[in-house]
Amino acid sequence: MIWNDEFETLPREAIESLQLKRLQQTVARVQATVPFYRDAFARAGVSADKIRSLDDLRRLPFTLKQDMRDNYPYGLFAVPLEQIVRIHASSGTTGKPTVVGYTRRDIDTWSELMARSFAAAGAGKGDVIHNAYGYGLFTGGLGAHYGAERIGASVIPMSGGNTKKQIMIMQDFGSTVLTCTPSYCLFLAEAAREEGLDIRDFKLRVGIHGAEPWSEAMREEIEEKLGIKAIDIYGLSEILGPGVGIECVEAQKGLHIWEDHFIPEIIDPESGEVLPPGEKGELVITTITKEGIPLIRYRTRDITRLIPEPCICGRTHMRLERMSGRSDDMLIIRGVNVFPSQIEAVLFNIEGVEPHYQLIVDREESLDTLEVQVEVNEQVFSDEIKELQGLSRRIQKDIKDLLGVTCKVRLVEPKTIARSEGKAVRVIDKRKG
Amino acid sequence: MTVQQISIFIENKTGRLAEVTRVLGNAGINIRALSLADTSDFGILRLIVDTPDRALEVLKADGFTVSKTEVIAVEVPDRPSGLNSILEKLDQAGINVEYMYAFVERSGENAIIIFRFDDIQRAIATLPEAGVTLVKSEKIFTA
Ligand SMILES: [Zn+2]
Question: Residue range A161-175: average pLDDT?
Fold first, then answer.
């Protein structure tokens, strides 16, 4: 179902003229109200009146996560604090968090975009939405919550953690839609099975998963183990929170980004140049309706490409290919770019191997080493050494074929790789620190 | 005529082997024969126990990856070339031995050898013809 028929199916020319008008307004506003942008525009020799077409966007400077930290906490706000009705912050793994503020209209926009997203995933009135994203400073919980209320569903504000209770409530309350990270979704399925329950027997029919990169193979596993449609959602707190883009249930192929509110660009993460349509690179987003903290050309660090072809669902907003990793997560091993998600994809393609893996990166005598630890379950276990060594070699060869990197594969006992209730720790890089 | 063997995946780190014997000991399971095949990273522990199904259950519950394999037990006279004559017969019949390990009967007269073949059915058919005695699993615990 399409939530907002008028805006979600606008013809391309109408989207672009709306984008240009909104971009011009946003640039003028931040230039007048945010000293950081006034200075950055001056340094780049650009100003609001020079933005005459969408192509002029590339004349504007980028905004980095570091710029948000440097202007901690309120330096990038474009309105006085008394107009801010909500403040969220992203967990900073190092140092200060990044802070975002929302005006009343921003909250309204966010609810609208999350409502569109739920509708695109096939959820609506009558659904019981089990929201297992964390409530609090993290945008996931409240963002999904407001959208769920907007579409008229019954929302259960579960938040994260307390897995046993999650399973009990999911079963007893008849949850039909689950929102959580993909790794937590599999964790729930495993925990249910240990209690002798099968989520496939529950009323659950749709899962909406995001906040960490996942693969097509992981989707298949979720759909199989929980008996649901698993939908990929995209968002980041700097831009909005969840609901920047989502897959439609009709195609399940690429995430529609709401182009009447955001302008996406794909750049080369090294040079900063805008790449030709369809090429893979770093996603850059400009917000064109946000009031509290509008961001110009924000570098998301997410790697994807734009899919310009029209979608079968009827929405005209462009799609982003499933995120294939973050430029931050990208490991450079002996000069080769490696994303943990690529290794995950290799493991998924080997019959019986489960996605519980960990990458240990180290350096021996100035040479980078990569060790891939994979848990041995009953499906791949053999009583013969040569069979297990064959499995190791197969994994090693598939990784070498795909990535061009030679790794060491270490088979480990089940459950020795730490399970996480939130985001899984996939990489231990011993070269750092 | 086959005997059930329990195979366990263990990482090469201290205490894992002891953990297996502790779990089996607590469950009152008797280990009759044991063999460890290992590489630098991991090993496969193979056991002949009195109650294989129970062993499988308790080890799984303790988080181990475990499987059950059909193997063959053969009685070998405890004298020079006893084993050799059996291996020659297998070789002539073109049957491959994946691995094998031995232990001594309680009486101390004969050795019992556990064989894992690539083609167990053919081994069962061939060995008695060649005059080799297959040992039933009950006998392993009484002999
Ligand atoms: Zn679509």
Answer: 95
Q: What residues does each domain of chain A span?
A: 1-328, 331-429
Separation CA B81–CA B76 (nearest Å): 10
CATH number belonging to the domain at A1-328, selected among 1.10.287.1040, 3.40.50.12780, 3.40.630.30, 3.10.105.10: 3.40.50.12780
CA distance to partner chain A, nearest, from residue B85 (Å) = 25
- Over residues A146-155, the mean pLDDT reads 98
Question: How far does the CA of residue B84 sit from the closest CA of chain A (Å)?
Answer: 23
- Side chain identity, residue B73: A
CATH assignment of A331-429? 3.30.300.30
**pTM for the whole structure:** 0.69
Q: What is the mean pLDDT of residues B114-122?
A: 90
Q: Which two tokens stand for residue B13?
A: 């780190």
User: For residue A420, how far is the Cα from the chain centroid?
Assistant: 18
Going edge to edge, which strands form the sheet with A255-257?
A154-156, A128-131, A177-180, A206-209, A229-236, A241-247, A255-257, A319-320, A306-307
What is chain A's mean pLDDT, rounded?
Answer: 92
What proportion of chain A, given as a percentage, has pLDDT over 90?
Answer: 72
Across chain B, how many H-helices and E-strands are there? Answer: 5, 7
> What's B119's DSSP letter?
S
Instruction: Please give the sequence-ordered ranges of beta strands (E in DSSP) within A260-326, or none if there are none.
Output: 262-267, 281-287, 298-304, 306-307, 319-320
What pLDDT band is residue A323 in, cutting at 50, 70 and 90?
A: confident
pLDDT of residue A423: 56
Residue of B nearest to A194 (CA): B61
Binary contact (A384, B63; C-beta < 8 A): no
Indicate the residue of A377, A385, A412 with minimum beta-carbon distance to B39: A385
**ipTM of this complex prediction, to 2 decimal places:** 0.86
Domains of chain B: 3-70 (3.30.2130.10), 72-136 (3.30.70.260)
Q: Is B129 on the interface with A (CB under 8 A)?
A: no
B135: CA distance to ligand 1 center in Å?
Answer: 66
Q: pLDDT band at residue A421, thresholds of 50, 70 and 90?
A: low
Q: Does B40 touch chain A (CB under 8 A)?
A: no
pLDDT score for B131:
76
